[in-house]
Write a structure and sequence with these properties.
With about 80 residues, this protein is α/β, with parallel strands linked by helices. It is built from 3 helices and 3 strands. A 3-stranded parallel beta sheet has the order 1-2-3, with helices on both faces. Strand 1 (about 5-10), helix 1 and strand 2 form a beta-alpha-beta unit. The longest helix is centred in the N-terminal third of the chain and has 13 residues, at about 15-30. The radius of gyration is 12 Å and the shape is globular. About 20% of the residues are buried.
Length: about 80
């Protein structure tokens, strides 16, 4: 079974990288197969860049062109999970 974790992110440049690393470390010791899907909800900062700089093979980035709100970002991420 594969676990997919969807993280909606809006203007999260300051903390998204550390949260991804922490989640990846946690899941790596507990789950055999997982992915972390970060949905950038049309952030106005460098959230997408911060996510793309993480050297984690479990992370996928989805960029929304317009702000859809937290629920919209979660729905978009769920549509993209394996």
């Amino acid at each position: 079974m594969k676990l997919s974790v969807v993280i909606p992110a809006y203007n999260a440049e300051a903390f998204i990288a550390s949260n991804i690393r922490m989640l990846d470390d946690f899941l790596s010791t507990r789950v055999a197969s997982f992915e972390i899907v970060v949905v950038d909800d049309a952030s106005r900062d460098n959230t997408s860049f911060a996510v793309s700089q993480e050297a984690c093979p479990h992370v996928r980035l989805i960029k929304l062109s317009e702000n859809m709100g937290k629920f919209g970002a979660i729905k978009a991420g769920m549509r993209e999970t394996c």
